[in-house]
Amino acid sequence: MTPERARAYARVMMTLRELGPAKLRSSEQALTRVAADSLLFCADIVADRSARTAFSDFDAMQERLVATGRWTSARAAELADNVWACGPAFEVMPRAA
């Protein structure tokens, strides 16, 4: 785990505490925590299917929050960026020309 990932995790947890049940149902808070936890303890996002699934479930939830008008797209994107930042860097290997 890197300091950047730990800070991203802290931002996610702080957001959940600040919003609480007024903006996120308990099931939505739990889904967000599972995604952040899964990514935080993930060493390789390509190889870790459960971490990818947890983030995919979270991503679908935040899209529903926007689609139903409960959240703005900017607010949802901010939380999604912080959750994703809990995970390892996704390095793309350059292709040979």
Number of strands: 0
Task: Give the SSE string.
Answer: HHHH
Compute the CA-based radius of gyration: 14 Å
Helix content range? 55-70%
Overall 3D form: globular
Mean pLDDT: 91
What does this structure look like?
It is globular and about 35 Å long. It has one domain (3-84). The chain contains four helices and no strands. Helix 1 runs antiparallel to helix 4. The chain has 97 residues and is an all-alpha fold.
How do you describe this structure in short?
With 97 residues, the protein is mainly alpha-helical. It has one domain. Helices cover 69% and strands 0% of the residues.
Quick tags:
mainly alpha, 97 residues, globular, 4 helices
What secondary-structure arrangement, pairings included, does this model have?
Blueprint: H1 3-23, H2 26-40, H3 49-67, H4 73-84
